């Protein structure tokens, strides 16, 4: 194999970053001790309070906001074996409030909750199905009484009143993590609410949330990725809870929960010495740690139980599993690795990158994907707190057997064993890791995520920061030795066949009586929170004229935004035409990915870009084509030169093109078996009808008859069309100098854009059959043309009524009636002048619940509910979000570019903010009555046909079952 050498400038620059990291223990002026790591550019401070709580603080001044995470070092691996799914269900219940938050009369509510708990214990112990049903009816009855004292979603209302975004949580093997992004001035209020939330567990509105979790379980059954992963983990870990109990739990355990067991779990693991507070954003270290201590320091330290260590015997044979679903066949192979942070995990990670990396320059990338030997293959390593996995994945081509696909993958592993990979590859991989870490840690969320990961995995911040240096020391000899010792016939292989999944669990609707929501009520605790008025953050609106520097090279406009954060640069070529002008343009770009030039093979091109640390992408939309180069500024000149070489010297190869056409056609068939893609196509059909951009594709016959040389003329001449250049970096002059030699004056003009109809939605129902547990329904209505004067109203409407945990739709459909795990209504403004807005109404639920869910949604939308307190909360939240958000980095340019389509040349948020400031509930109601209420909807439904309730469906409109060929256009 021809040898290549990593760019000298890239090597020198990044090698200089290989600094020594050392933990330093310091004390601030208030007496708080903390640890920091010498040479850590992120400036993280790690405190440990007297009760054992870890506090991670770091500054990020992108915006006056703080990314918050509260990680708890426990997950589904600590679920009792007879109560699987408990940790995840507990995560849901932590949003339900306490004896102070979420209740109107705790003394009365508490008595009823105890009755419900006792009934669940009886229900769990009862073996007679008929008696279990009777007990559930009693649980439903007492829950009705208890709900009269509860205030649904009061935690969410408290958090949204801060202007928080991203409110959520997740549970996994060894972690449960709670998340919010808040305005910096609301930190004290956030801490007050979170301190209250974690101070005690109250299992109110328990049975309705349980039903929501069961709907989540159903969604998992319809998820191919989870189907494969469950089988893989079960076989890879025959003893360890990694594989022996899923995070979602079993159907039997979900239907027979124990409130006593959940309380015990909370009391055991939700203790300060098993939790952390992670805050990254616009904060003051001294003030912040004092506030955290004020609120969280009162929690009492509690000894944790000794955890039983479960060890696995080494695998000595190939273990196979087969799962089936309606989607296309694919195969996953996995070897068990050592835990996160171990040398074996690092070696496995490097091998995964040698095989399949971000630059598409790995052995699998070049020898399988680039040569189109399968429909797609890859490698990845997943380290867990205990053990991990190294996986190879492949989607075979039509007629290709699993054994043939497996042989291709193992052939690439054999190359690693023999050391037959480029000598420069290791350095390139480590340098790419440095660059990616730099890009990740410059964002508040990226750094905060890494901090909570290090906490969950029991790693010091020094270990985490120094990890890159350990990668640096890995040699080619280390890799070859590891590969030969590690990769044997000691793996799991999961065959995902196309077929009927006979393991689906289908359950009857338990018949939950809708509970009281008490939407207008407020607890004294919430009133106290709302009464606290922090110093306001004033909104800052960007002046695009000063934020973007412009110049001219020949007849091309060049825009520049300075990168104030790191040495990553970006060059974008933005062409004002797309597939509406030439639908074969996207085909040309797809073919380009597999072609070489007169100087480089296709594989060598990938390698050259990867060695430079420069990534490239081509994005084609209906009205725009963007070519982007991103990577180290020191190498951008070489990246621009290489891209220009590719565009002007691409070599038309008929054999490669013919294979590309075959791959595209096979990929189309795969799409027609994928539930998410089918639902997307069906929704598009309901929105636009049979003649749309999505169905107006380049036909099989046209692709096969095209001359690849003619197709590549579209690429070779693209520089002669109109375009503009956007540069993001530190040195404007040097970067402009890099692009200047390749900019040409415009000599060609794009074809006139085809105009696609945006027909009225007239009450039609379109259905496509798919074997699944749930049904998904999306109702789409065409509204009036975009009106800049209504942007604020649309913003508040979505917050108040349609989307989010505190919205009316979520409260009513999920919290009160348990009719769906996912339900929302969204008002979407058009992105271009003289085009219509659309309203989307989505429900994903069990098929037997869909008629009830549709009725409930229709009742909600008959009149806009009038809840003044909730409206003011939503309005205030919208204002705080705008006030505390900042437009920066590349968003400065791309936001302005998007606004131009609306005929706007300034920061429109200024108008939106002003509109929301003066908005009243009657005005929002008038907007609803005028812009939403009169609309007619077309409906898209996907599910198993035999489960359709036609009586309910016919009430929605004229029913038509449409084929996959109709909705995809092929």
Structural description of this entry:
The chain is α+β, with helices and mostly antiparallel strands and 970 residues long. Helices cover 43% and strands 18% of the residues. The strands form four sheets. The chain has an eight-stranded mixed β-sheet, sandwiched between helices. The chain is globular.
Number of DSSP strand runs: 25
Number of helices: 38
- What is the straight-line distance between the termini? 42 Å
Largest sheet: 8 strands, mixed
Strand arrangement, major sheet: 1-2-3-4-8-5-7-6
Average pLDDT works out at 95
Helix- and strand-based class?
alpha+beta
How would you describe the shape? globular
In short:
It is built from 38 helices and 25 strands. It has 970 residues and is of the alpha+beta class.
In terms of topology, how is this protein built?
Layout: H1 8-15, E1 22-27, E2 33-38, E3 45-48, E4 54-59, E5 65-72, H2 86-93, H3 106-125, H4 129-147, H5 154-160, E6 165-171, E7 176-183, H6 187-199, H7 206-221, H8 224-236, H9 241-244, H10 251-255, H11 259-269, E8 276-281, H12 285-296, E9 319-325, E10 330-337, H13 343-355, H14 363-369, E11 376-383, E12 388-395, H15 402-417, H16 425-441, H17 444-456, H18 461-472, H19 476-486, E13 492-498, H20 524-531, H21 544-547, E14 549-553, E15 556-562, E16 568-575, H22 585-592, H23 602-612, E17 614-620, E18 625-632, H24 636-649, H25 654-671, H26 675-688, H27 700-705, H28 708-716, E19 724-729, H29 732-739, E20 764-769, E21 774-785, H30 791-802, H31 808-816, E22 822-828, E23 836-846, H32 850-862, H33 868-884, H34 891-900, H35 909-917, H36 921-931, E24 938-943, H37 950-956, E25 958-961, H38 964-968
Parallel strand pairs: 4-8, 9-13, 15-19, 20-24, 20-25
Antiparallel strand pairs: 1-2, 2-3, 3-4, 5-7, 5-8, 6-7, 10-12, 10-13, 11-12, 14-15, 16-18, 16-19, 17-18, 21-23, 21-24, 22-23
Helix pairs in contact: 2-11, 3-4, 6-12, 13-19, 14-15, 15-19, 22-28, 23-24, 24-29, 30-33, 30-35, 33-35
